[in-house]
Each structure stands twice: as C-alpha cells, then as structure tokens.
Design a protein that fits this description.
By secondary structure, the chain is α/β, with parallel strands linked by helices. The chain has one domain: Rossmann fold, CATH 3.40.50. The chain has a seven-stranded mixed sheet with strand order 3-2-1-4-5-7-6, with helices on both faces. Helix 6 runs parallel beside helix 7. The longest helix is centred in the first third of the chain and has 19 residues. The N and C termini lie far apart (51 Å). The protein binds S-adenosylmethionine.
Length: 246
C-alpha cells in the first residue's frame, strides 16, 4: 500500500498537480507549511525542536527545508530579473542551524497524564536517532543535539543560539511543564515573524487549564509579544505567529 502511495505521490508531483506537501494536514504537512511561510517571507532564523523522540519530525523538517532551499537556488536561474535579484539577496542563502532537544530516554517524571505521557514512555535510542537524522542532512546543515531535560539544557541552548532569532519553534513535548520550560528557554530568541508549532495543543481534551494550552496562555500573558493563531494540523496540533509587540 505504502509503495503504491509513493508512486501516486511521485506521479502527482511530476505532473505538477500539487506543490510539495501543501495539501497534507499531518505533522509533515504542518512543517512543510511552516517552511513555506518562512521562505515566502524570507525570514532568517534557526529551527528549534523540543521533543524529538525517534526523529520523525526532525527529518520531515530537514526534508521540507531542503526542498525550499533548493527552490531558492533554482530561482537564481529564472528568466525574470526580480526573481534572480530576490534569490541572490535573500538572507535564506545563509543556512539555519537545527537545534534538537530531548531526554532521548523518554518522558520525564510528571503527574499530568496517568496513561499516555507517564515517565519513560516515548523511549528512544540517541545514537540511532542521530544517525537517522544525519543521513537525511543532504545540505550539511549544522545540527546541534541536546540530550537531557529541557531545563538541564537551557543554558547550553542559549549559549549556542546567543542572540540569533528562531524562525521555526516546534514544541512537541505533550506536557504543560515541559512546554513551560521550552518557552522559557527561548523567550528572548523569538521575534515578529517567528512561527510556533504546538503539536499537542488540543491534547487533554483541549482543556484550557491543562497541557500546552495552559502553558502557552500563561506565556502569552507575560510576553511582550502579540501572537495570532495560524493553521491547525494533525489531530491536535496548532500553530501560532508572532505578529507584533504589546
Ligand atoms: C511525542 S514525543 C515527540 C515526537 C517527535 N517530534 C516525533 O516526530 O516523533 C515527545 C518527546 O518529548 C520529550 N520530552 C518531553 N518532556 C521533556 C523534557 N522536559 N525534557 C526533555 N524531553 C522531553 C520526550 O522524551 C519525547 O521523546
């Protein structure tokens, strides 16, 4: 089945019936859209992912990024002058860093969900994940891995980011406490234009007082920025844009 789906997708792409994954509403489609938004606006900044597990979304992100980067390069040979000029001068000729954070040993201790997100669920093998992601790194992007809890790795991440901005912030860690730690770690690196993906925004029955919803609501109240809902994706994911300052 997967084989036929791949062939169908290949034919559809060859015939130019769809561009990339813009019609896919799963996680990889959500990431494709995020990179499309970044390239449409020529927004410079790194990719930061909190919650890597076995590396699926990190690989999707690398693949989407590569597709848009190659498109940008192809624009340099376009027969329209403005396209050539724009692609030559785009800040996106500079490749972003990818920052990938996880315990790589499963969920940390928490009391948030007795069933799905209990400690040690989502176990992964750090070396295997690193290898899997590196194999997809055709453009030789600098990828920094941070193995440990988000709290433990905050300083290291901040030292690596310094004052660089984040273009895409992908928070896929399910829990409220983890989302709070993630948002706190990068609060000075987001800016107008940053897109934030919350993969689990509508978990916990979309209860406003739980999970990522609660974490982000509190964060918004204390932030100097104004955020706006963008698109939803997958079963429970929601993206936001940073659209202004208070
Ligand atoms: C749903 S999984 C991520 C899925 C992944 N993005 C993918 O593409 O398959 C959630 C991950 O968040 C990690 N996580 C949750 N809270 C964390 C924390 N406080 N510190 C580090 N990792 C955390 C877990 O270890 C787990 O691997």
């Amino acid at each position: 089945m997967a084989f036929f789906r791949k062939i169908a997708y290949f034919i559809i792409k060859k015939l130019n019936l769809i561009r990339g994954k813009i019609h896919l509403n799963d996680r990889s489609g959500g990431l494709y859209r995020a990179w499309g938004y970044i390239f449409s606006n020529h927004i410079e900044g790194d990719y930061v992912e909190f919650g890597v597990y076995k590396g699926e979304s990190a690989v999707s992100s690398l693949e989407s990024y590569s597709e848009f980067y190659n498109w940008l390069q192809s624009q340099k040979f376009d027969n329209e002058n403005w396209r050539r000029e724009l692609s030559e001068s785009s800040p996106l000729n500079q490749k972003p860093f990818f920052h990938l954070l996880d315990t790589f040993q499963g969920m940390p201790q928490n009391n948030e969900h007795p069933l799905i997100f209990k400690k040690d669920s989502f176990l992964s093998d750090f070396e295997k994940v690193k290898k899997k992601i590196s194999l997809k790194n055709n453009l030789n992007i600098i990828i920094n891995f941070y193995k440990g809890t988000f709290k433990e790795k905050t300083l290291e991440l901040q030292q690596s980011l310094k004052n660089k901005k984040i273009a895409i912030l992908n928070i896929d860690c399910d829990l409220m406490e983890s989302t709070i730690d993630a948002l706190n770690a990068v609060q000075s690196n987001i800016d107008i234009g940053t897109i934030i993906l919350f993969d689990d925004y509508n978990q916990f029955k979309a209860h406003n007082e739980e999970g990522q919803r609660k974490a982000f609501r509190v964060f918004q109240n204390n932030s100097k920025f104004i955020f706006e809902k963008f698109y939803s994706y997958g079963f429970v994911g929601q993206s936001f844009l940073v659209v202004g300052q208070k």
